[in-house]
Amino acid sequence: MKAERAFVDSGVFVGAFNKRDSNHERGKSLLKKIGTDFKIAYTSDFVLDEVISRLVKDIRKGRLRKERILERIEKAIQDSALVRLEHVSESMFASAKTCFKEYRDKYLSLTDWTITIMMRDFGISTLMSFDDDFDTIREIEEFSSITRIG
């Protein structure tokens, strides 16, 4: 049975798009699950920014290459019927900052906390990510339903 939804973290997109990335095959494999194992995937504008920034930094091939990267990302994320790009609201960002400050023992970035808050608010329990720091949030009751695959 196909699960409803998953959330995709930046590392999965970066791995899938960059052939030289150590997670290239894993990233491609996870993205192929969208539409088969999962009906739809979500990601955020904060994640999209991370993806573009990391790919441009990793590849560094000049202006034409940057434009190609942007085109591929637009096609794969922004223009996809299988991936919903959501915007981090002011209240989500405020909640993420609160968690960032409150849970000092968790090594999540502020963007990671926005992902966690968005997943909680949207009722999404599956996270596609290579970042095992997300595994530590299961100790927090309000995030205990989040499971990372990757």
Automatic annotation (TrEMBL):
A GO molecular-function descriptor: RNA endonuclease activity
Gene3D superfamilies xref list: 5'-nuclease
Gene Ontology BP annotations: rRNA catabolic process
PIN domain segment(s): 7-138
Pfam families: PIN (PF01850)
PANTHER family, alphabetized: 23S RRNA-SPECIFIC ENDONUCLEASE VAPC20
Protein name stated in the entry: PIN domain-containing protein
Organism (species): candidate division MSBL1 archaeon SCGC-AAA259J03
